[in-house]
Write a sequence for this structure.
C-alpha cells in the first residue's frame, strides 16, 4: 500500500513538474500535425517518452480509421509500449524497440487478456515509415501507421472505438531491458519497469490532407 501511494504521488509530481505535457507538434519530416503528450518516468529532467497521434479530419466517432503514431524515446529504454484503450488487458498494444544494431526500429502488435505476457495480435497492423523514424545520441524516434487501432472487440464481445474528436485514455509502459530478439517483431519481451496511463485529446492532432500526406511516407 505504502509503495502504491508513493508511486501514485511520484507520478503526479512528475506530471506536475512539466508545465505543458500536451502540445501541437507540426512534424517537419512527415508534414503531419500531431497532438503530443510527454510522459516522464524519472524525476531527472528529460527522462520521459513523447507520444504523438495524427488522425484524419474525416474520421468520425464509432468508425474505424487509421492513426499515425510517433514516439520519441530515450536511448536507455529497451522497449516502450502503448495501450490504445487505456490499460494493459483487452485492448491493442503497440510495443516498439530498436533492432540489434540500434539503427532501425520495429513495431510489434500485441494483445493481453490479463496482466500476463501479451501475444501477437493480428487485429491491428503497423507500418513503420523511414520518414520520421530515426536515432540520435540521446533518443530514438519511430513513426508508424496503425490500421486496426481505432476499434477492437473485447473478450465479452463489446466493440470499443477510439474517439477521433476528443479525449482518449491510453495506457503506456516501458522497460530498460530490450526484447530477447530485437530483430523480430514477435520476440519475447521482458516485463515493464512502469505501466501507467495518460489522457490525450486525439482530436487536436487532426489532418485535412491525412491520406495524401500518409501516401507520401516511405
Ligand atoms: C511483457 C510482459 C508483461 C507482463 C508480464 C505484464 C504484467 C503486468 C502486471 C502484473 C501489471 C499490474 C501490476 C503493475 O502495475 O505492474 C501490469 C500493468 C500494466 N501493464 Fe503490463 N505486462 C507486460 C507487458 C505490457 C505491455 C507490452 C504493455 C503496453 C504495451 C503493458 C502495459 C501495462 C499498463 C498500461 C499497466 C497499468 C495499467 C493496467 O493495469 O492495465 N504491459 N502489467
Amino acid at each position: 500500500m505504502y509503495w502504491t501511494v508513493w508511486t501514485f504521488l511520484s507520478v503526479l509530481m512528475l506530471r506536475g513538474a512539466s508545465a505543458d505535457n500536451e502540445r501541437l507538434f507540426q512534424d517537419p519530416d512527415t508534414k503531419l500535425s500531431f497532438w503530443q503528450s510527454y510522459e516522464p518516468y524519472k524525476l531527472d529532467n528529460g527522462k520521459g517518452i513523447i507520444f504523438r497521434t495524427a488522425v484524419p479530419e474525416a474520421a468520425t466517432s464509432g468508425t474505424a480509421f487509421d492513426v499515425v503514431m510517433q514516439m520519441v524515446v530515450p536511448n536507455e529504454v529497451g522497449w516502450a509500449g502503448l495501450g490504445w484503450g487505456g490499460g494493459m488487458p483487452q485492448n491493442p498494444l503497440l510495443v516498439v524497440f530498436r533492432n540489434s544494431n540500434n539503427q532501425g526500429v520495429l513495431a510489434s502488435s500485441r494483445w493481453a487478456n490479463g496482466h500476463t505476457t501479451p501475444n501477437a495480435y493480428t487485429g491491428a497492423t503497423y507500418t513503420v515509415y523511414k520518414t520520421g523514424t530515426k536515432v540520435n545520441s540521446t533518443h530514438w524516434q519511430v513513426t508508424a501507421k496503425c490500421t486496426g487501432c481505432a476499434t477492437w472487440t473485447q473478450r465479452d464481445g463489446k466493440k470499443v472505438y477510439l474517439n477521433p474528436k476528443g479525449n482518449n485514455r491510453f495506457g503506456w509502459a516501458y522497460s530498460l531491458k530490450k526484447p530477447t530478439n530485437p530483430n523480430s517483431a514477435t520476440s519475447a519481451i521482458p516485463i515493464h519497469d512502469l505501466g501507467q496511463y495518460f489522457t490525450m485529446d486525439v482530436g487536436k492532432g487532426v489532418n485535412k490532407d491525412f491520406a495524401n500526406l500518409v501516401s507520401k511516407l516511405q
